[in-house]
Automatic annotation (TrEMBL):
One Gene Ontology cellular component: cytosol
Lineage, highest ranks first: Bacteria, Bacillati, Actinomycetota, Actinomycetes, Propionibacteriales
Annotated source species: Nocardioides cavernae
Record protein name field: 5-methyltetrahydrofolate--homocysteine methyltransferase
Listed EC numbers: 2.1.1.13
Keywords, comma-separated and alphabetical: Cobalt, Metal-binding, Methyltransferase, Transferase
Length: 221
């Protein structure tokens, strides 16, 4: 296959979520000395953006997003160390975790894949993340954005506990805070003082980029 054919096939197979073929094509491209960033920016990311667009139109649903995301994630495992070597700049750093008391992670994991596909460096703290663990991780990783995820109405109050912990640690102005999860609404996000909310993985990527652009435009060069 020519490099052009590989890029087209990589786009198509990611769209349909054919993980084994996506990995094969990634390796074929690398064997042809194609740049890892070419595979990422000219095939994988555009494909995942199309997945998001189809989801928003109602042509794709969560299962289709998940399998496309998993196909992309397999390719990313192969490309990540190579991209690091070439010094490809990431869009920004996103620290993510499901709040204390909550063990749900399917939505969070899908968001992580979509964010990574859009060029973010994602640090996933997993589930049951206590406020102090978020604080430690923010101090260690210095992310641009921190995301709190909750699936249960009973764990949503942890958003406020996390915000209070950020205030107490003097970090509130250092990071953009986004919240999300099945029961979460824009009104609730506003009530706890979050900077952003998104209803699904596709919207999270758009919102995160917009918030980051807005913050950077205020910072003097």
């Amino acid at each position: 296959m020519t490099p052009e054919e590989i890029l087209q096939a990589l786009y198509d197979e990611t769209l349909t979520g054919n993980a084994p073929r996506v990995l094969e094509l990634t390796n074929e491209g690398l064997d042809l000395d194609m740049e890892p960033q070419t595979l990422l920016f000219d095939a994988l990311i555009p494909s995942l953006e199309e997945v998001g667009a189809r989801f928003e139109r109602g042509d794709f649903f969560v299962p289709e997003m998940l399998i496309a995301g998993r196909a992309m994630a397999g390719a990313m495992e192969r490309l990540r160390p190579l991209l690091a070597e070439t010094g490809v700049e990431t869009v920004g750093k996103f620290l993510m975790g499901t709040v204390k008391g909550d063990v749900h992670d399917i939505g969070k994991n899908l968001v992580n894949i979509m964010l990574e596909g859009a060029g973010f460096e994602v640090i996933d703290l997993g589930v049951q993340v206590a406020p102090e663990k978020f604080i430690e991780a923010i101090d260690l990783h210095q992310p641009d954005i921190v995301g709190f995820s909750a699936f249960l109405t009973t764990t949503m109050p942890m958003f406020k506990a996390n915000m209070n912990a950020l205030e107490k640690a003097g970090m509130r102005n250092d990071v953009i805070v986004m919240v999300g999860g099945a029961p979460v609404t824009q009104e609730y996000a506003d009530a706890v003082g979050a900077d952003g909310y998104a209803a699904d993985a596709s919207q999270t990527v758009k919102r995160a980029k917009a918030l980051l652009d807005a913050k950077r435009s205020k910072v003097p060069a």
